[in-house]
Design brief:
By secondary structure, the chain is of the alpha/beta class. It has 2 domains: 31 residues; 193 residues, Vaccinia Virus protein VP39 (Rossmann fold, 3-Layer(aba) Sandwich), CATH 3.40.50. Helix content is 30%, strand content 23%. The strands form 3 sheets. An 8-stranded mixed β-sheet has the order 6-5-4-3-7-8-12-9, with helices on both faces. A two-stranded antiparallel sheet has the order 1-2. A two-stranded antiparallel ribbon has the order 10-11. Strand 3, helix 3 and strand 4 form a beta-alpha-beta unit. The longest helix has 19 residues.
Length: 299
C-alpha cells in the first residue's frame, strides 16, 4: 500500500477538523476563505498591524445618549432601537479584530488605507449610507492628515435615514449643505420613482451617480443584495473613476459574482471576509454581512 505524503495527510486532517467544528457549532461553518491573492492579480494582503498606522486615537469625553469612536466621531444612540442603548456613554478605542461594533474589521482596513493614500483632497461616496458613519469617520481621519478639501456624497433610500444623516453631519461639525445627499436606491438602472422598491425611492445607477466626478477615492457600499447587479451594470464607470471600493456582501453567490466581476476588470482584492450564516429549524439564515475591499491600480 502506497504511503500518503505528509502534506496530503495535513490537508485531510485540517478538513476533518473543520468538519468536526461544523458539527459542534453552526457558526463554525463560516470560516474565512483565503482568496485575498489571485495569481492574475498579485498584491500583498492587508496586515492588521497596518490598519491604523499613521492615525492618532482621539480620547473623547463620555456623553449619555451617544457614543464615540476612536476618531472622535459622535453617534447618537437614539438612531437605534432598544437593543443598542447600551452604547450610551461608550468611548471606543481602535477596533480589534473580533471586537468591532457594527462593522467588519475589513471595512476599517479598506477605508483607512483609502484615507492614507489620499493626496490633498478627499472624495468619498457612501451607498446605502444610513446615518453616514463612513462619510463622517473618513472625514475626521482625513483631517488628521491635514486634508480639509473634502467632497462627500451619501445615497440613501429611506427619508428617515436621510434625516439621521443630516443630524450626524451637524453633530460632527459638517455642513450637509456643502455636500451631496441623494434620496435614492442604487441599482442597475435609473428609475424615478420606483414602485418595486420597498421605500418607493428612485433608482440610481452607478454610471449616473459618477458622471460629475473626475476621481473618487472611496466608495463604501451597503445596498442589501443589490451590490452584484449594480456593480455589474456600472463596472465601466467605476473602473474609470474610483480608486477603492469597500462593499458589504449579503450572500455567498453575490460574493462570488463580485470576485469574478472585479478580477475580470483588472481590480485587485486587498482583503475580504465572507458573510456568516446560522441554522435554525433546518433553515439557513444570514447572521452577519461579509465585506470585500478592492483597489483599482489604474486610478
Amino acid at each position: 500500500m502506497a504511503t500518503v505524503p505528509l502534506y496530503v495527510r495535513t490537508v485531510l486532517l485540517s478538513f476533518q477538523l473543520l468538519q468536526y467544528l461544523a458539527s459542534r457549532h453552526p457558526y463554525a461553518t463560516c470560516y474565512q476563505i483565503n482568496r485575498s491573492i489571485h495569481p492574475s492579480n498579485p498584491r500583498r494582503p492587508m496586515r492588521d498591524e497596518d490598519t491604523f498606522s499613521g492615525f492618532t486615537e482621539v480620547r473623547s469625553p463620555s456623553r449619555p445618549g451617544a457614543f464615540y469612536n476612536f476618531l472622535g466621531a459622535m453617534t447618537r444612540t437614539d438612531f437605534f432601537g432598544p437593543d443598542l442603548q447600551w452604547l450610551s456613554g461608550q468611548v471606543f478605542d481602535f477596533p480589534v479584530r473580533g471586537n468591532v461594533p457594527f462593522f467588519e474589521y475589513e471595512e476599517w482596513q479598506g477605508v483607512m488605507q483609502a484615507v492614507r493614500e489620499a493626496e490633498g483632497s478627499w472624495t468619498c461616496t457612501e451607498l446605502g449610507c444610513g446615518w453616514g458613519p463612513w462619510l463622517v469617520s473618513t472625514t475626521l481621519a482625513a483631517r488628521q492628515r491635514g486634508i480639509n478639501d473634502v467632497s462627500l456624497t451619501g445615497v440613501e433610500a429611506s427619508p428617515s435615514e436621510i434625516e439621521k444623516l443630516r443630524t450626524h453631519f451637524r453633530d460632527n461639525g459638517l455642513n450637509a449643505n456643502h455636500h451631496t445627499i441623494i434620496n435614492a436606491a442604487i441599482d442597475d438602472h435609473d428609475a424615478d420613482p420606483a414602485p418595486e422598491h420597498p421605500e418607493g425611492a428612485a433608482l440610481l445607477s452607478l454610471a449616473t451617480l459618477l458622471e460629475p466626478y473626475r476621481r473618487v477615492d472611496l466608495i463604501h457600499c451597503d445596498i442589501q443584495f443589490a451590490e452584484a447587479r449594480s456593480f455589474r451594470a456600472g463596472i465601466q464607470a467605476v473602473s474609470e473613476k474610483v480608486r477603492r471600493i469597500v462593499v458589504g456582501t449579503h450572500s455567498r453567490q453575490i460574493e462570488d459574482e463580485l470576485i469574478d466581476l472585479f478580477q475580470a476588470n483588472g481590480w485587485q482584492i486587498e482583503c475580504e471576509t465572507p458573510c456568516r450564516y446560522f441554522v435554525n429549524d433546518g433553515r439557513v439564515n444570514l447572521l452577519a454581512d461579509g465585506a470585500q475591499v478592492w483597489v483599482n491600480p489604474r486610478v
